[in-house]
Design goal:
Rossmann fold; globular; about 30% strand; alpha/beta; six-stranded mixed β-sheet
């Protein structure tokens, strides 16, 4: 089998939501085990832990994706990881290694060329460091 284990990285954005139908299609075709991960950045501000993620709660994001897989008849495992700002790509790659993923499916946020050059993007860094194939959905 080509893709026995698929890791789907979701961020809660509209663009990132495009990854779910693609991952469902691949998992259905290959009978893959699926792990859904949401990496949530946290920082310290005046002594308090501050959630730097998008507006929706992390649990709501992964539950919605889990429900989409369940509706397609696919049992997906979910994980939420908390990291320091900027550590998201390394965490996605780390989870992929832990679950022995053959493929990472993730979205591209669509940074403009200058921002991508200066800052890099999560998907670019995952592609650079992953030990498995990476499918970036636009």
């Amino acid at each position: 089998m080509m893709f026995e284990r698929i890791l789907v990285a979701v961020d809660g954005s509209r663009e990132g939501g495009k990854t779910v139908p693609v991952a469902i299609d691949l998992a259905t075709r290959y009978g893959s085990e699926v792990t859904v991960v949401h990496v949530r950045e946290h920082g310290r501000y005046e002594g308090a832990d501050v959630d730097l993620g998008p507006g929706a709660a992390a649990e709501d994001i992964v539950n919605a994706v889990h429900d989409a897989f369940a509706a397609a008849g696919i049992d997906a495992r979910t994980e939420i990881r908390r990291v320091s700002p900027g550590d998201t790509p390394e965490q996605i790659v780390g989870v992929a290694q832990e679950v022995h993923a053959d493929l990472i499916v993730m979205g591209a946020k669509g940074l403009d060329a200058v921002s991508r050059f200066l800052l890099g993007s999560v998907s670019t860094r995952v592609v650079q460091y992953a030990n498995c194939s990476v499918l970036v959905v636009r």
